[in-house]
Amino acid sequence: MVLAGAATALDFIARDVTERAVASDVKAATHAERATVSISSFPFIYGVAANGRVDGIDVSVYGVPAGLLRIDEINLDVRGVRIDQHRLLADRTVSVTSIDSATINVVVKLSSLQNSLASDLGVEVSAPTSDRISFVVHGVTVASIDLTRVPIVPSCPLDVTHTGAVYTFSCTVAPVPASVLAALSKATGAAQP
Length: 193
Hints:
- By secondary structure, this protein is α+β, with helices and mostly antiparallel strands.
- It has five helices and nine strands.
- It has one domain (about 1-185).
- A hairpin with a 2-residue loop joins strand 8 (about 160-165) and strand 9 (about 165-175).
- It starts with a helix and ends in a 9-residue tail after the last helix.
């Protein structure tokens, strides 16, 4: 019973250390104000040690600069994550080697002033390509933001939803491109528990 409890505690500690390391990597890669990571895999150590795989990782970043725009929130839900076992267990660094699929949601919230001005000017917000948000006034594009400048945002067909002053851009991509893998594992050392 004591051994099982110790193994479970060690598993939670290892997962927490890995979550913090990935969050630190993502925050640095995106220049976000804050990043959180949640790994859904239990037992974590066994999954990584036996086959270098975790079921999924949920990443949320907040306050991300993207050219003229500040993205309020990006949520990345990745599934079928493969991690370099040796680097994690021996070197205490996180290196994501592949991801089966990822769903991303980019949330932009306009302030009441921005929303009022957009409404008064007739600004339309759209995603005309798989990597850009465009702001159009009377048929003329006045600004265009390349979302793929944010390393965890892959180029994929964006769906746009608009509720009040909140715009959400979402897509699913499989397999996940190398740029996203790199942002999730900048080879920084995992924090000591």
